[in-house]
Please model this.
Amino acid sequence: MSLFTGAFLFWKKGRSVYRGPPFSIRGSANDPPKGGAMVIFVAVKLKKLFKKKRNYSWPRPESCPRCNDYKVWGHGYTQAIFDGYNEPLLLKLYRCPVCGCVIRLRPSGYFKRFQAKIKTIRSCISHKEKHNKWLSGIPPTRQRHWFRSLQRRIKAYLSDTWTQGLVKAFDHFMTLGHVPVTRSI
Model:
């Protein structure tokens, strides 16, 4: 018997009692399906969040996005960097006691894993397409990263025959629910 499938037997008044496995086995057929949204976007005023830090009143999710259980617990905070702030901001985490899912609340208007606003990224791409120049005030390396990532996604998903422009492709990916400037394909 392996450690994961073993059971414990206890002696109680001269007879053995089955107590089941020592802990739940992750990845069993009874687990809820994975892949639910673990990042929930909420309306947040970053200036208020910056000032109040841990005292900011975050909304509590109504249910777990993975297993739809009605109860979620506070699970602390995580740091995230956003443009315009010289120190990381604290984002609220929640945890589902049933399936163990950790839920991160993130400000709306930002892509997952991006510190720049969606509007900023779109305006950089639009400016480069119209004027063939990068916007001032934002490092050209970041703008180039977004621009090349979008070009790569266009080639992968829309083929080389896409003629409607980069901004139209950006909007098209947004309507599909994709992050237009991500490096992953």
The chain is about 30% helix and 20% strand.
